[in-house]
Structure formats: structure tokens, C-alpha cells
Amino acid sequence: MFYTIHDILRDTRIHAGYNACERPLIDLGDDGNLTIDQQIMANIEPAARTVMEEAPPELLSPGIPVHRRLVWPEAPGKGMAVLPLPDDFLRLLSVRLTDWHRPARIIDESHPDYRWQSSPYAGLRGNPSRPVAVICRQPQGMVVELYASTAGRGVTLDMAQYVPIPCLRHGGMEIPLRLYDFLITKLVSLL
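The chain above was modelled as a monomer; its predicted structure follows.
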């Protein structure tokens, strides 16, 4: 849902126990300190990012679809596929290839199970019944390695959803409805 900067400032001030309007009740002149609104503005994007990184995936759904081509390092539809992620990528919510029985379990490259994904033994690495998606940093940017497919040439990306990095645009910010109160609480804690 789109929330304007005015709404975010007003709701944060109210929740923190300050005057609901941006005009101070008593004008003391410039005392060299940041105003409440300036403090809130400086923290909106970092607070939104923290809230979205820590939120359970079900509060972030639905995400934005990823429309990228799969890259198959070995043979098309066999083994691991690589899916480049958008530049504004923050979190991957779900990913599934057409030959998988369910969406993948999502881990990152620091997870201990990552080392098993290149195992020659099929029971240890991801497979269509137990797919694994690993978020990795590569020289060309963030990618997700998708383990593993066996169906061959017809395998395509069935679905992939991600959450973008939150940023202020057009006088406001897109924030999932169920996370707005968490954002306001986080902003109040930073004042």
C-alpha cells in the first residue's frame, strides 16, 4: 500500500506523543537541533528496510514477480539454473521451476547446506521433490542458484516473487499494509 510522507510523519509523531502537526506549539527559533520531522525523514528508509528484512514472508506477500531468463551452466533443464535478480532486490519470497513439486527452500551462500548442493549424490542436493534456492552474490550482481532440475529442455521459471528495497518515491513509500504499524513503532524507537 502507498503511504505518503505526510501520513508517515503524522502517525510517527502521534505514536511518539508529539503534536500531530508539524508546526511546533512554541517557536523557539533555530537552536541547531534537528526537528522531529527531520529525524523521522532521516530514518524512514532504513527503518522500512529493517522491518521488511525481519518480517515473516507471509506478511510481505504478494511480492513483485521476477521476469528474467534462466541461465543453465550445464545443459538446459538439467542440474542447476541461475536466475539473475533485479537491482532493487531485498528478499526472495518464493521461487519455483515448472518441474518442481513445490516452491524451493530459500537459503543464502553462508548457510551450511549450500556446500551439499554441488554433491555428486542426488540424495544430498536439491531435486524436484526437495528444491533448494541459494541467494548468491556474483560479479554481475545478486543471483539465485536453483537446485536442481531433471526434466530437460522444457523447464522454465514457473514463479518467482521478491521484495524490493523500500525507498521514498513520488512523495511516499510502498509498504505492505500489515507492516505499517511495525514501521511506525520502529521509527518511534529511533527518535
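The CA atoms of residues 84 and 162 lie 12 Å apart.
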